[in-house]
Design goal:
The protein is α/β, with parallel strands linked by helices and 207 residues long. The chain folds into 2 domains: 70 residues, Urease, subunit C, domain 1; 130 residues, Metal-dependent hydrolases (TIM Barrel), CATH 3.20.20. Helices cover 34% and strands 24% of the residues. The chain contains 6 helices and 11 strands. Helix 4 runs parallel beside helix 6. It is elongated, with a radius of gyration of 21 Å. GO terms for molecular function: adenine deaminase activity.
Length: 207
């Protein structure tokens, strides 16, 4: 987030700008305190800027949504998902899970990588970018996951990580299988090193 955007969001949080949307009369599920209570929610530029009594955030063009009888819950994150096993496109998968509260997933997109390489993964990531589902993608540490290593499909190596860990969609390494770590496989050790050096820095830069 640029400094000017950050300043704008701080001002929005101080009610210096009217909210774009206010959700009224809902029951807020506070996942920090394990409480459920009535609270309104003010949203500015797709970010929550206030909860509770948000009357001062309402302007003439603020959209009001009546949530009477409904619960307001933070988006759920599926922490480990092989989405390819659903046999659905990313668009169809999002249509299936987002209405039920799952707004983000963590996945390696393994089989896309193995069967279609980086070009195919790029198409999948572009499709994800057009939809409502957030995908935190970790490049598989190596593909295929076999010892001895198979030559069937796209092989992810340390050099692949050197390139791809700089992509803005990448958040590190996905699913480091214990056998490869225990045997100190050269490409796996290098992938972990590169992820620590590159992805952590780039992930923070692209927030």
């Amino acid at each position: 987030m640029l400094q000017e955007d950050l300043r704008e969001m701080i001002d929005a949080g101080a009610a210096k700008f009217p909210a774009d949307i206010v959700i009224c009369n809902g029951q807020l599920v506070n996942v920090n305190s394990a409480e459920i209570y009535q609270a309104d929610v003010a949203i500015y530029r797709s970010q929550i800027v206030a909860t509770g009594d948000v009357s001062e955030y309402i302007g003439p063009n603020t959209q009001r949504i009546d949530a009477t009888g409904k619960y307001l819950v933070p988006g759920l994150i599926d922490g480990h998902l092989h989405i390819e096993c659903s046999k659905l496109s990313m668009t169809s998968f999002a249509k299936a899970v987002v209405p039920h509260g799952t707004t983000s997933i963590i996945s390696g997109l393994d089989q896309y990588v193995v069967t279609s390489g980086l070009e195919g993964v790029r198409e999948v990531l572009d499709e994800i970018d057009m939809g409502p589902l957030k995908v935190f993608w970790g490049l598989p540490f190596i593909t295929p996951y076999t010892l001895p290593q198979s030559n069937v499909g796209f092989n992810v190596t340390a050099e692949t990580h050197r390139e791809v860990q700089k992509w803005p969609e990448v958040f590190g390494v996905w699913e480091t299988v214990s056998e490869f770590v225990e045997n100190q496989h050269d490409d796996v050790m290098k992938a972990i090193e590169l992820a620590r050096e590159i992805a952590c820095r780039y992930s923070a830069a692209h927030q």
